Amino acid sequence: MRITSKISIAALAFGLATAAPAQDSPAPAPGGIADVDPFIGTGGEGHTFPGAVAPFGMVQLSPDTDTTCVIRECYPHAAGYRYEDPTIQGFSHTHFSGAGHSDLGDFLVMPTSGDTVALEPGDAKTPGSGYRSRFSHAEETATPGYYAVTLSDAKVRAEMTAGTRIGIHRYTFQPGAAAHLVLDLRSSLYNYPGKILWSSLRLHPDGTITGTRETRGWSAGRKLHFAMRFSAPLTSHAFLNKEEKVEYRGFQAPGRGSNALSQLSGRALVAQLDFGKLDRPLEVKVALSMVDEAGALANLAAEPGDFDAVRQGTAAAWQRELGALEIDAPAPMRKMLYTAFYHTLIAPSIAGDADGRYRGPDDQVHQAKDFTFRSTFSLWDTFRAEHPLLTLVQPDKVNSDIVNSLLASQAASPHGILPVWQFHGRETWTMIGYHAVPVIADAYLKGVRGFDANDALDAMVKSASYAPYGGLDDYMQHGYVAIDREPEAASKTVEYAYDDWTIARMARAMGKTDVAATFDKRAANWRNTFDKGTGFVRARKSDGAFRTPFDPTAINYGSDYTEGNAWQYSWFVPHDQAGLFALMGGDKAVVSKLDKMFDFDNSKLDYSHAEDIAGLIGQYIHGNEPSHHVAYLYNYAGAPWRTQERLKQILDSQYKPSPDGLSGNDDLGQMSAWLLFSAIGFYPVAPGSLEYVIGRPFTNRTTLNLPNGKRFAVVADGLDDAHPYIGAVTLNGRALDRSYLRHDEIVAGGELRFRMQAKPNRSWATGKAARPFSTATAHN
């Protein structure tokens, strides 16, 4: 249905005098920010978005190319935007960066011009059938904190920027054209009938619009509120409830002191906002709050400034954050790495208001004291490398915020456990394990403070002892999760064992020897899943027998393994690889089995039913996290040159500086963190061990500007494609004949220098004492 309206109103504007010029703002200063390409990962399987976001910002203001899909059809559009799409449906304010699932896409805004206004998105295949518009990548640009595109059908130049809790749109309409906005509260990512539980719109006397939406999506009962102001007064408007065919049109300007406003509630709200013919760009400033509309208004007031001011401030913030790394590498690698770094600094995003209030997992409003509440915890993915990266490059404030947010969520959890996969303070119960535990333990062991360690340890123990969760009752009684009582039992057993080891490590560091002893014993439970007969980790039934039939290549959701099979999960013993390797038959047998994994012939296998199985190299699956540490395991078997070969194979085949440059979902920064660590030259195989396993460098020089003011440089002499192997390594000028670095060696500052050569050095770091940490051969 098309609606036109000529009703005139008067309203106050938030900044007519400071409205921006029609042309785009100048490009940001050269440096790290200039090397970021937000379009990397927006095609293929990356699921990233190109829009505007501040570091860890609450608002991710980005284009949505299609939100009309339903459930599984939406998987390619998990981030709202897909590079291959020819149209933009609108610009919404919340997005995940690289998730394997989705939700969000809140409060979609779309500019239109002309005498009539379409209030339905229309069909992407039929131009002019709705408010969506075609666009060209040639007229599209993105840098950290800024996005712009020309909407060819709407004949509007659209620009986006974002602050911490705000987003600002700037729309330049053609001279003489009537300017309109469509505000669609029906639009959402991963949509399906009944997802919108309730929504509301209200127009305040000063021209501000506020609203609320409650959804039942990936998380149930998620509430989000907004406040929106304009740089030009509305001339007319219409609020419509498309479900009940109810509408509110126009606005009678109130007199001074009047509390009059127009408002509408329902489950299918859309608004038409009219501005007449404008002589300057229209700015739309939007703030979000998970607490209430008053919080959104307060967040709006907390970040003053027009489009250019906010864009400049956010660009400066990104430049500061990206300045933690100085990367010297060929341009394509430099672009990939700075973009990867950018992607690691989007989440965990701020989810609390400027006044410290936040909504917890109990759906109640809480007040944060001395920390900023953060959410968007994809912990099954990010405990591996994303969070260890943040402990290196982020000030303690960010890391203590993360830990305090996890603890606050546990305290407010109806189940009394730490988050599993949480966003906007709401739990989704997606994936397995209690991987907030290694995040907290690794941070504590690396010296992060600013939280109550005793409370943290208590929360970790409670999470590991909550019997109704994921087969923990059987795990605590029998030492393994029983497959006839709980799906994905093999994966759960080995992941619980690793998490338990990190509890033991933190408890011991705190002098809690009784807790440490309990969880040290539990950390050995991985042994109960290993089948010497087949050489694989397998699921056991409650009677103790391994489940049959057994196919190590089978991938089926709800089976013995989580998003993988026996080939990937049989290597998941990060804390005791030496113990695992002894059961596998020793170094030679392990190297042979690793080679078989990478060289496996998949030609007769079909994994098309499994969305997350991408980036295959044999049975190594780089597009999903269970494989991410595997290339480094040759080091534990005394063959580090094989790790060096496999890393080059992975980087060459799984990453490139283009929209389809990620082989799998970035998963809130994990794929990017893997690339960043691996390109620098080392990787945290076992967070909590205080060690990083050396791989090989892929940059000429990378310098870490550490939060403590120290600098740690990684230099590769003679690096090129003809010299892919490590010949020798020195740390601060002294020969280093071990294949790991300690965390304290990095944060002390200094230089790690590699001499690269054409052929493998089969004697470097091969001895037992030169290998990384394992419980069975502990050297720290």
Automatic annotation (TrEMBL):
InterPro entries in UniProt: 6-hairpin_glycosidase_sf, GH-type_carb-bd, GH92_a_mannosidase_put, GH92_N, Glyco_hydro_92, PNGase
Keyword Oxidoreductase: no
Any coiled-coil regions, as ranges: none
Signal peptide start and end residues: 1-22
Protein name: GH92 family glycosyl hydrolase
Enzyme Commission identifier(s): 3.2.1.-
Keyword entries, A-Z: Glycosidase, Hydrolase, Signal
GO molecular function: hydrolase activity, acting on glycosyl bonds
Residue span, Glycosyl hydrolase family domain: 296-757
Stretches assigned to the Glycosyl hydrolase family 92 N-terminal domain: 36-289
A Pfam entry, by short name: Glyco_hydro_92
NCBIfam families, per database record: aman2_put
Species this chain originates from: Sphingomonas agrestis
Biological classification of the source: Bacteria, Pseudomonadati, Pseudomonadota, Alphaproteobacteria, Sphingomonadales
